[in-house]
Amino acid sequence: MSPEDAARLAGLLHAARQEARLVDLLAELPADTLLPATPDEAYQVQAEIVRLSGEEIRGWKVTALKEENRAAYGGTRPVAGPLLSGWVFPSPAEVPLSRFIAPLLECEFAFLLGRDLPPRETPYTLEEIAEAVAALIPAFEIADGRVPPNAPGALRLADSMGNGAFIPGAPVTDWRALDRAGPVTVRIDGIEIETGSGARILGDPLKAVQHLANAQPKCAPLCAPLRAGHIITTGTATTPVRLERAGRVEADFGGRVSTIEIKFFKVLPFHELAC
Hints:
By secondary structure, the chain is α+β, with helices and mostly antiparallel strands. The chain has seven helices and twelve strands. Strands 1, 2, 4, 5, 6, 9 and 10 form a seven-stranded mixed beta sheet that branches. A five-stranded mixed beta sheet has the order 3-12-11-7-8, with no helix packed on it.
């Protein structure tokens, strides 16, 4: 994949995100454009999207934590997509459904880095990762890709790994004593609709941060390093929920981990507002 190919695809994906639409690759790209086939090529596209957006990388969503899921992305290590500042809305947030195509709500344990985790040959231990974490953050991710769900993995990875938006709750600094494999409950308009657990993420969501940090020197580099201040969100603790109507969504992570909430509202087209 050439730099020109990466730039063309990035421009298309960036525009599609702003317009909340799926891309038509055959119609919208020159016929000779090569698509990403490996994580390295996908990260080239991500880096170009970051440049085009002019936004700050606030963190990363990590996936392919299990070995059997990695081949789908053309590699052998976990992969990640950037969380861009223009799509991060601190809880309590009001987020219009009109900004998304087919949004899925995921409840996630996220971690705020207190120091850099640079690539190195010696793998990070879980304790070293814990020492680098400044806080645990209960969070929602809204997954929403600009390519079809059945698109090749490297193409989905290029598309910011299907990130639509990220809603972080209040950081918990005394997080080590919390049950990171504990229950998570989701309610919409006060009605419980889903329960899950942090145990779904390798038994302990902190291990996802470790896996990502240790993926750096041995696989294609991320489109930017893991830095202090970045948030690493570790994958859904609940079955994803399709968001189809306006309403108030809450997630309770139990114990001393705070509740987070989103109020979705539909935005009328301009011509209807003017009537």
